[in-house]
Amino acid sequence: MTMSIPNNDAKSRLIFALDIGDSYEEALSWVGCLKDHVGMFKVGKEAFTLYGPRIVEAIQAEGGRVFLDLKFHDIPNTVAGASEGAVRLGVGMFNLHASGGLKMMTEAVSAVKKVSDQLNRPRPILLAVTILTSLNDEDLAMLGFRQGTEEMVVLLAALASKAGIDGVVCSPKDITAVRRACGDHFLIVTPGVRGAAPVSGDDQKRTLSPREAMALGADYLVVGRPIRMAADPVREADDIVEAIADGLSRRR
Fold first, then answer.
1. Options 3.20.20.70, 1.10.3720.10, 3.90.1300.10, 3.40.50.2000; CATH of 11-251
2. Which of 27, 90, 104, 207 is most exposed, with the fewest beta carbons within 10 Å of its own?
3. Which one from 35, 71, 113, 114 is the annotated catalytic residue?
4. Catalytic residue check, 162
5. Could you report the per-residue pLDDT of 58-97, keeping only the tens digit for each?
C-alpha cells in the first residue's frame, strides 16, 4: 500500500528544499533546525550529487522523511532500476519525468511494487514531473511545442495517471486543470509557492501563495528560498504551515 498523508496534519504537507549550503554539515544543520517544523526534506540533484546517499541516510537518522527529487528520465529499464534504488534507500517520495513516456512510467511503478513487497515496507509515493515551473508558454513555443503549459501539463498528468503513478509535480497555476482531469485521489505536489515578499534571483514564473495553492487542491507544497532566506526560517516555516491549514479549511 502506498503511504498516505494525514488528513488534518498541515505540517506533513510542507516539504523543505534542502539543495543549499556550502557543506554537508551546513545542509544537515537545516535538518536539525526544521525537522520539527516541516513534514519532509527534498533532496535534489545538487545535494545528491555532492553528498550521495549519505545525505538521505543522515536525514532519516534525524527522524526526517525524504523526497528524492532526481527526476529520473531515461530508457525504461534504467529508470526501473533507479526506482528500485530509491525504494531501497527508504525514501518517502521520489519522481520521474512524465515526458519519458508511458512504458518508462509503468515499468517504474512495477519496480516500486516489486521491491517494496520484497522488503515488506510501504511503497514510496511516486510522482511524475509535468512541465517545470520555470517554463511558461513562450518557453514551450521556443522548444517547438504547439500546446501551452496548461495543455501539456494536463496531457502529461493524464498519461501518468494511466501508468499508475500516484500523482504529479506541477505549478500551482495548473492545480485546477490537473484535479479536473485526474480526480480527487491523484496527488498534486506544488513547487513555485511564494509569499508576499520577493525572492532574490527567483526563476519561478507560475506561482501562487501557500494558502491559494492549498485551497485550490494541492496536497503538498515544496518551499525552499522563502524559508531559507527569511530572517527567522523557523517562524517562516510555521507561518506557511498555518497558511496550509487555512487553505485546507477553505477547500473543505
1. 3.20.20.70
2. 90
3. 71
4. no
5. 999 999 999 999 999 999 999 999 999 999 999 999 999 9
